[in-house]
Design a protein that fits this description.
heterodimer; A: 319 residues; mainly alpha; MetI-like fold; disordered N terminus; B: 296 residues; 2 domains; 77% helix; globular
Amino acid sequence: MSVTTFPSRGGAALQRPGRLARLFDYKPFLIVMCLAPAIGLLLVFLTYPLGLGIWLAFTDTTIGQRGIYIGLENFQYLLKDPLWWNAVFYSIFYTAVATFGKFALGFWLALLLNNHFPFKSLIRAIVLLPWIVPTVLSALAFWWIYDPQFSIISYLLVDVLHLRDSNVDFLGSPWPARFSLIAANIWRGIPFVAISLLAGLQTISPSLYEAAMLDGATSWQRFRYITFPMMMPILAIVMTFSIIFTFTDFQLVYAITRGGPVNSTHLLATLAFQRGIAGGELGEGAAIAVSMIPFLVFATLFSYFGLARRKWQQGEAND
Amino acid sequence: MTDVVASNVASATPDTMAWDSRTRRVVMIYLPLACFILILLFPFYWMAITSFKPNAELLNYKEHNPFWITSPTLAHIKHLLFETSYPRWLKTTMLVAIGSTFLSLFASTLAAYAIERLRFRGSPYVGLGIYLAYLVPPSILFIPLATVIVQFGLFDSPLALILVYPTFLVPFCTWLLIGYFKSIPYELEECALVDGATRLQILWRITLPLAVPGLISAGIFSFTLSWNEFIYALAFIQSGANKTVPVAILTELVTGDVYQWGALMAGSLLGSLPVALFYSLFVDYYVSSLTGAVKE
């Protein structure tokens, strides 16, 4: 039955396909064809530049001039450069404080959003807005909020609440500028952390909480011994991502302070841009960019394995 | 604070429960939630209100309440649309975002199909390799990439951005689509194979139609990410006419020492609207892609 109907149904498809169609049905060829666009793009625009960047870091290339190999000279220069040390310090400080802030506040927001209340999905959608909108554009809004003369925060503190006598100088001196940038980064990062952790919270089975309630656990104990350990795997992933992208942040600093005042808020990425693209010293810029890699690898290993190991230990204890 | 609450829960007698349910809910949930929403939304409110304020109100807090507008004006938006190249920047950004979205959807659909459905030796490693590409931040790559772009003769061309953006879009989309293809029963494809369909026919006629929600999620994600991209657009585009909105506002509109805050905020507002609108149409897809990717 099926044998007789086969040619009539598949006839058009079976006879027409010439060598080309049969070639596309040959699995190894198809696999290569399917992977080619993605792998090709990534090799040409990601792997090759990554290697090229490491090579450039060992040359004295400038814009418009091919460099020659100069060994570790760029790095030796950086090690003696107080601006580079300053950028290393601020990159670490920025990442540490901003990540802590994002996760503390984001976790709190996720716990709040995990309750039942009216317009829940609308509120969840609104909360993500800072994450959706182009960072540079919200950074401009922060720049305006931090304006030395017309800052709305200064207005609130001075004219409405009478807590201060003079306007806050947010971006004029090093430490306030550093913290202002961190605040903007935290503001932007909270939604991502909160929504990702909310997804994790929703996978925790309610029966665990019920069992704990029956045993008389307080809400803090339920958080400490159920929510927190169950969230560890997701926390590890989200934190790894967050650390990588906070450490290599560029947009916020470039948009708000461009590294100033007196180069106090340079991150490694903005310093690399200033030297490499704006200053034309491609080799030195590449060396600064490459100098981020060890920090990134360390931070990734630390956050990923640090958190993952604790999860594993807890799992052992519970089993 | 936590002590009070904890003791309340521990000694959950009916008396304290009455206080619990109402006041506690307001203090513990609604109040902090309201603060969060207020702070998260305030910069947008400030952006919006600044773009419609006349300059006289903008710079005079003594006589005008800064939180409100008494005589709204469209002057800033008019200035932006008719006296700057803003429409052109919007068009370029749109072109780049749509182009790179389609390119990365094409590449990552095929790659995800090959990895998940054509299963071959080492396919998990290819998947992992593509995924690891996501962990390489653009800040490390932009200097060497700039020289590559110059070598290819693409400097200052939007095409450079269309080709480069997939480097951070493809890994994410591939990962998302692999997860999505996994959820489509393999039996459907086997049936089609038995009926004599070619592999490409199966992909086009059976797998893709079923994966539309996954494709939409990946598409929205790609569109917003490429709309928001900054560092590559800043490094690879030189001429004012070819810039994308985020770069152009920062480099072309910020001039001199006196900032045109009205026009700057109007530009930011208009530049944020397309993504915000696009996002609001597909919120559920967006949230599911974000959370789905994390859960994987």
